[in-house]
Amino acid sequence: MAAIRTSLLLLALAAPALGQDPGPEVRAVAGVFPPFVMVERGQPTGFSVDLWKAVAARMKVPTRFEIVPDTASAFDALRTGKADVIITGHFYTPERDREFDFSYSILNAGQQVMVRSGGASGMDAPLRTYTTLLFSRTMLLWLGTALLLLIIPAHVVWFLDRRSGGFDGSGERYFPGIFHALSWAAQGLLNQSPTMPRQRLARVFTILWLFAGVVFISLLVAQLTASITVERFRGLVNGPDDLEGKVVATQAGSTTVDHVKRLGARIQAFPGPDEAVSALLDGQVDAVVLAAPALQYYETHRGAGQVKVVGHQFIKRDLGFVVRRDSPLHRRIDSALVDLHDDGTYERIREKWFGSE
């Protein structure tokens, strides 16, 4: 990765047709983002590289590739005139569109979530599992039910037993009699053999309440046991809906950063996807969120057996090549892409890297 981060200038042999003079050299900049852009044996490769070479061949221009360390460097190179096109393939955004021009779509993709394989991520701990369950919707319903099971029986017994002097001899007074009744209800709910009231009907109610407390606690323990088992089996992150409060790695400068923030996650941004995945494998983060094709590639290639992609794709949008505003390359690139779609070249390149749909 250190070698990749240094600017790497490579001449692509996108040769023009025989007997024709090549056009001006196009300076193409890209960041490493498997499987869109990779460097193997000193040569650029990947879906975006193959597609751009086909586009350049249609345009009859040679290309000089420059590999940069991150997204910001790619846009800076384009902004300062050091590059003519970014070929990595970036998502369209209104902010970027105000400054740059995007080509026709080269791929439609969404964001997806990747975690360590085998269930929970490296940052999982008993305390986190406990707090997750404690503040879950199911637990709040159980706690609400327990509160009702304290308040209602306490008032019933206080009402029945108030004329016999109550638990503490406070008689018919609501205060402090109700507090002693609430203590009695809590002991009964926890099956702690509470003090028996003096009034006969209240004693009968107490026996029924003790039985109800046993049933309630048994059901609660069963629910907690089942929830913990399911939580450990499924893992803490199973899709975008589980990212709230989690530590999530993504690529610095990408549109993913804003999306993940809106999901309530804590962001750790890295220069490239390799560093983000390494942080996941080292247990520094709970999940990685990036473009779905990149994560699927890691799952089946570099991270096979170590990581897994979970949940559905979300915020699906088009990716395109990027040029400076009003660049003369814009129309030529779009025309070449249309030709590649029409003659089937685009589909062959797509299937090579992503398989048939």
Brief descriptors of the model:
357 residues; alpha/beta; D-Maltodextrin-Binding Protein, domain 2; Helix Hairpins; ten-stranded mixed sheet; two-stranded antiparallel ribbon; 13 helices; rod-shaped
How is the secondary structure organized here?
Layout: H1 2-5, E1 8-12, E2 26-31, E3 38-40, E4 43-45, H2 47-59, E5 63-68, H3 71-79, E6 85-91, H4 94-99, E7 100-102, E8 107-116, H5 126-134, H6 137-161, H7 174-189, H8 200-234, E9 247-251, H9 256-262, E10 266-270, H10 273-281, E11 287-291, H11 292-300, E12 307-324, H12 329-342, H13 345-354
Parallel strand pairs: 2-5, 2-6, 9-10, 9-11
Antiparallel strand pairs: 1-5, 3-4, 6-12, 7-12, 8-11, 8-12
Helix pairs in contact: 2-12, 2-13, 6-7, 6-8
Question: Could you characterize what this model shows?
Answer:
- With about 350 residues, the protein is of the alpha/beta class.
- It folds into two domains: about 1-110 and about 315-355, Periplasmic binding protein-like II (D-Maltodextrin-Binding Protein, domain 2, 3-Layer(aba) Sandwich), CATH 3.40.190; about 130-235, Helix Hairpins.
- The chain is about 45% helix and about 20% strand.
- The chain has 13 helices and twelve strands.
- The protein has helices spanning about 1-5, 45-60, 70-80, 95-100, 125-135, 135-160, 175-190, 200-235, 255-260, 275-280, 290-300, 330-340, 345-355; strands spanning about 10, 25-30, 40, 45, 65-70, 85-90, 100, 105-115, 245-250, 265-270, 285-290, 305-325.
- Strands 1, 2, 5, 6, 7, 8, 9, 10, 11 and 12 form a ten-stranded mixed sheet that branches. It has a two-stranded antiparallel sheet with strand order 3-4.
- Helix 2 (about 45-60) crosses helix 12, helix 2 packs antiparallel against helix 13 (about 345-355) and helix 6 crosses helix 7 (about 175-190).
- The two termini are about 30 Å apart.
